[in-house]
Structure formats: structure tokens, C-alpha cells
Amino acid sequence: MDILKMSDLEIYEIGLKELTLQLGAAEKMRFLRQCKPSDYDYTAERHKWLADQPDIPTIAKRIQKMEAAQEAEEYIKTERVAAWRKGLLELTDIEIYELGLKVLVEKLDAYGFLRFIVHHFKQLNATQTVDLSQQPWSDSDDSIKPNQQIRETELQD
After folding, report:
1. Is the CB of residue 149 less than 8 Å from the CB of residue 131?
2. What pLDDT is attached to residue 155?
């Protein structure tokens, strides 16, 4: 799979399939609902952080503490995901979000992941679509095929 030679739509579809495979359909939808652009102003926060810079030994100690805390947190996350896969507990929205990001990066690499997200944002900004692959349909209706998407405005006509 060469991400550089694939279209955004192909990458998006591969990402959706992998999310469904790894998370399931319901959790895939929870993940996708959370993927939306943020209006967070990082620069304002950055100025606050830079104003309170401690000395180098203090920074080194903080880094060591953070690394130890991250290792403990990763262990807990791994245990929770394993329990979720066994059906023993429900993951929180942030856990689903983090797991979905991990699945996409592992499958598509960093560049493919970015293209997936950009394509997803374009989908969010486009007219709302209805996925007819989830809708009941009959073999006699030749105008609607499974996996076909129709814009909401077309459905109202």
C-alpha cells in the first residue's frame, strides 16, 4: 500500500474500514463525531507557558516525572482496551478517540492519517450525506444500490 500514490478518498475508505475492523461500527461513529476542527488558541496559552520557565534541573525532574506517569498511564490504557475487547467494560469518548487515532496512524502512517483527517473535515463541511448501505433496500429497485450515498437535498425531492 503506497499512501503517496493513493487518492484522498481511497485513504479515507481504507481508514474507515480499519476503524470498523478495530473498533466496530458504533465506536467508529463515536470516533468520527469527535473529529472536528478546533478553535483553540494555542498561541495565547504558549505565551503563558513561556513566561513561567523554571531552571534546567527543575525541567529535567519534571520530564522524568512525566515519563514515569506516562508509562503508568499507558499500562492502564492497554489494560482497559484489552478488557473492552473482551466485552468487560465500555470505553470513554476520549479513549475511543485515542484508540481511533492510534489505529489510523498504525494503518496509514502519519502522512496518510493527515490526509484522512483533512478529507474527513471536507466531508463535515459538505452537504450532509445519508449512507444507504445501512438502509433497507430491495433487489427490484435499480435506482438505489448498496453503498451508494445520496445528498440530503436529493432525498427531499
Report:
1. yes
2. 41
Considering the domain architecture, whether residues 109 and 61 belong to the same structural domain is answered as yes
Three-state secondary structure call for residue 148: coil
Same domain, 82 and 141: no
Average pLDDT over residues 133-147: 40
Which residue in the block uniquely carries the three cell numbers 459538505? Answer: 126
* Domain around 155: 128-157
Q: How many domains does the chain have?
A: 2
CA 156 from centroid of its chain's CA atoms: 31
Indicate if 69 and 115 belong to the same structural domain.
Answer: yes
45-104 residue pLDDT tens:
777 777 777 888 988 999 999 999 999 999 999 999 999 999 999 999 989 999 999 999
Structure-model confidence comparison of residues 69 and 138, the more confident one: 69
Please name the amino acid found at residue 125.
N
- How many CB atoms within 10 Å of residue 73? 10
Under DSSP, the state recorded for 126 is: S
